[in-house]
Amino acid sequence: MGEEAKISELYKDYWDYMIEKNIEGLRNLMSSDYCLYHMTGVKQSADEFIEGLKNGTFYYYSAEHDDIVVSVDGDVATMTGKSRVVAAVYGGGKRSWRLQGDFTLRKENENWKFTSSRASTY
């Protein structure tokens, strides 16, 4: 499997883990300095984001992936994923979102890790 395909699978795992609330799985995908930029402009560390998953601030029901584009340059990569997500966030009701995630990654000990993600809609 090529590097691009590996990273595409990590993106799918990322969503599966959020839906399953698999905290250990998510942590294994993230670098120690991972940060998430929500479409609201809020910046969160991995710990803050994971706490939001645990306490119900973020609740993900499903994700259908429309497009995943990966670019690798040595030990760094970028990836844009477009997915139709059903979620309830920040106390709002369950609804469908067309979410785009723009991710950066780096290879650490032969494993790709997400270093950042920026959420928007498409």
How would you characterize the overall build of this protein?
The protein is of the alpha+beta class. The protein has one domain: Nuclear Transport Factor 2, Chain: A. It contains three helices and six strands. It has helices at residues 3-20, 23-29, 46-55, and strands at residues 30-37, 43-45, 58-73, 76-89, 95-108, 111-121. It has a six-stranded mixed β-sheet with strand order 2-1-6-5-4-3. It is globular, with a radius of gyration of 14 Å.
Distance N terminus to C terminus? 29 Å
- CATH fold category name: Nuclear Transport Factor 2, Chain: A
Helix content percent band: 25-40%
* Structural class computed from helices and strand pairing: alpha+beta
Number of structurally distinct domains: 1
Q: Regarding CATH, which class?
A: Alpha Beta
Q: Which segments are poorly predicted (pLDDT under 50) over 5 or more consecutive residues?
A: none
The second-level CATH architecture is Roll
SS element count, helices: 3
Estimated radius of gyration: 14 Å
**Mean of pLDDT:** 96
Order of helices and strands: HHEEHEEEE
Largest sheet, order of strands side by side? 2-1-6-5-4-3
Largest sheet: 6 strands, mixed
